[in-house]
């Protein structure tokens, strides 16, 4: 399993793509097209939203699990775009139990965020939250409904009976026409997706029982988790390791490795607390060198020094077995390099994550300084080639986290990484 340990954008797509070489199946288990994974292979850049990162390998079966919310229009556009780039998506499988994002979800996302004003959450406005809300309220439409026109229309009629008055009377928006919407999705999306819709839980367990290797791919990250993140500035699903069991339909007994991905620094998109945020020239440097703009939204990311208080909490909650550290090369020109090892909260030093939101907002980072290496790491392919200062930095992260680093990224390319020996 691959999970993010920060606020997303850690480089999960790169490491999932790397690990997928040795997998038979890659399963995306939560989130929607608010998540963007960027892969660079053979000089070409692939930007994925819904399709799992293993799609670039012909031997891999990419699976969109039941815990994902799917915008069928976006998924079809992504499949067509990848096809135009020479990527074969015929093996893609979509869970019939995954919920649909429909146009009214997107409208509600936009108007609700605008209604919050200064208290807005910084959502991507892709309809993710409203779709998950309908799922929890048991009024959502699922991917399998596209295969049954009668059921689709009945469910859609029931939902629009509630949504249309809300849109018209509260938000002053035009209501949706039942027939127009139903015809569009049943006639355009249904036939295109029908060959891909399946019982993914059965497919996954058949693969495991036959001895195949499966990789579970998380979107977003630990501190965007609905239950364990910096609420309310979170996503609407559970990216943590436990969420993979629900979102893919697999029990924890089958999971033997949980890889936590962290940047060598930290970023965040949108609103919310960020103790180690840098608003100076160093923060600008990280944005520029790290190309810290959202894959989907193009929004500039907020940048800061690595926070090991957060990392230790992510290790606990996800039962991480090892770390994959991305973008070590972005720190090449910085000296010294700081690492947040604790928080000062009202004069009290905290080395563990405060549970109360007010304390997180008031937390002042306590830093340790390490010397920079001031050399180009982009061509390094073996740990023995690292400058001593870079090796010391990685060792410091391992000591702070309490788990080993087994993969380190030193550039955007597929082969720009260092593999460390894994501790059993």
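^ Assign residues to that structure.
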């Amino acid at each position: 399993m691959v999970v993010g340990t920060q606020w997303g954008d850690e480089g999960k797509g790169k490491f999932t793509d790397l690990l997928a070489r040795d997998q038979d199946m890659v399963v995306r288990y939560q989130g929607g097209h608010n998540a963007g994974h960027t892969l660079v292979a053979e000089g070409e850049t692939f930007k994925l939203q819904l399709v799992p990162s293993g799609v670039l390998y012909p031997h891999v079966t990419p699976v969109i699990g039941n815990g994902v919310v799917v915008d069928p229009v976006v998924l079809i556009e992504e499949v067509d775009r990848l096809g135009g780039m020479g990527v074969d998506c015929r093996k893609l499988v979509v869970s019939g139990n995954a919920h649909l994002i429909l146009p009214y979800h997107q409208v509600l996302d936009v108007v609700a965020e605008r209604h919050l004003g200064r208290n807005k959450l910084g959502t991507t406005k892709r309809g993710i939250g409203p779709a998950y809300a309908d799922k929890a309220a048991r009024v959502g439409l699922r991917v399998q409904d596209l295969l049954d026109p009668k059921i689709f229309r009945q469910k859609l009629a029931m939902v629009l009976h509630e949504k249309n008055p809300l849109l018209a009377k509260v938000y002053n928006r035009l209501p949706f026409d039942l027939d127009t919407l139903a015809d569009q999705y049943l006639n355009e999306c249904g036939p295109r997706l029908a060959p891909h819709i399946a019982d993914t839980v059965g497919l996954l367990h058949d693969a495991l029982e036959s001895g195949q290797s499966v990789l579970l791919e998380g979107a977003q990250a630990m501190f965007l988790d609905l239950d364990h993140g910096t609420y309310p500035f979170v996503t609407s699903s559970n990216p943590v390791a436990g969420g993979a069991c629900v979102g893919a339909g697999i029990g924890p007994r089958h999971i033997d490795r949980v890889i936590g991905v962290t940047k060598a620094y930290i970023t965040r998109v949108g609103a919310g607390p960020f103790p180690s945020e840098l608003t100076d020239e160093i923060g600008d440097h990280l944005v520029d060198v790290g190309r810290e703009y959202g894959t989907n939204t193009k929004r500039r990311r907020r940048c800061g020094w690595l926070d090991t208080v957060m990392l230790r909490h992510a290790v606990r909650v996800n039962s991480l077995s090892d770390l994959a550290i991305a973008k070590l090369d972005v720190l090449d020109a910085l000296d010294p390099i700081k690492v947040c090892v604790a928080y000062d909260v009202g004069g009290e030093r905290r080395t563990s994550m405060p549970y109360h939101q007010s304390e997180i907002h008031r937390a002042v980072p306590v830093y340790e300084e390490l010397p920079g290496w001031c050399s180009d790491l982009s061509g390094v392919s073996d740990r023995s080639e690292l400058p001593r200062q870079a090796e010391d930095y990685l060792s410091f992260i391992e000591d702070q986290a309490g788990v080993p680093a087994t993969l380190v990224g030193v550039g955007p390319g597929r082969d720009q990484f260092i593999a460390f020996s894994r501790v059993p």
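The first helix runs from residue 12 to 19.
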